[in-house]
Amino acid sequence: MNTSLIIAYIIVFLLSAVPLFEAFVVVPVGILGGMNFVLTLIIGILGNLVTLLLLIILVDRIKQWYLERQERKGQEKSRKSKRAEDIWNRFGLPGLAFIGPFFVGSHFTALMALILGGSQKATFFWVTLSVIAWTLGLSILVLFGVDFMNLEGRQFLSRFIEE
């Protein structure tokens, strides 16, 4: 493996760890760019889950900060918070975990699940399952889309990661 390719995988890991970038966005882009499907998938999911786990471990402090911030600003619940609460009331934790990341990202979804009363273990389990499902599903669609469109030879990242 050359240095440029290692840097590309590190970038996938780091971008997947950033809330709002999410693995299910970064991994398909990497695959479209010509990176290895399985390796990119694993590295992207791990990047997303590292920060998700940190969020869940530190949830008490983050939850307190979030609620105090809302109170200090004197704001009503945001549109995202209302949407998350509606999904929670209608579908419970599994529903929020699978629907939420599509709209607000996995990190905010986990935070809302914990604020709405989900346990740390259950929240981590369901959101992890959701991240894996979304990332795998979108990556497979990209992989088949690339094959279907016969774009295998046109990998736009290849010029950056080749020696």
Task: Provide a descriptive summary of the structure in words.
With 163 residues, the chain is mainly α. It has helices spanning 3-17, 23-32, 37-57, 59-73, 79-104, 106-115, 120-148, 158-161. It has one domain. 80% of the residues lie in helices and 0% in strands. Helix 1 (3-17) packs antiparallel against helix 2 (23-32), helix 5 packs across helix 6 (106-115) and helix 5 (79-104) packs across helix 7 (120-148). The model has no long low-confidence stretch (mean pLDDT 85).
- Give the overall silhouette: elongated
For the largest beta-sheet, the strand count, sense and barrel status come to: none
In total, how many beta strands?
A: 0
SSE arrangement, N to C: HHHHHHHH
What's the total helix number? 8
Share in β-strands: under 5%
Low-confidence stretches: none
Mean pLDDT rating: 85
What's this entry about, in short?
The chain has 163 residues and is an all-alpha fold.
Name the features:
transmembrane; Sm_multidrug_ex; DNA-binding protein; 0% strand; transmembrane helix; membrane; 163 residues; elongated
Please give the structural blueprint.
Elements: H1 3-17, H2 23-32, H3 37-57, H4 59-73, H5 79-104, H6 106-115, H7 120-148, H8 158-161
Transmembrane segments: 7-31, 37-59, 91-117, 123-146
Protein name: DNA-binding protein
Keywords: Membrane, Transmembrane, Transmembrane helix
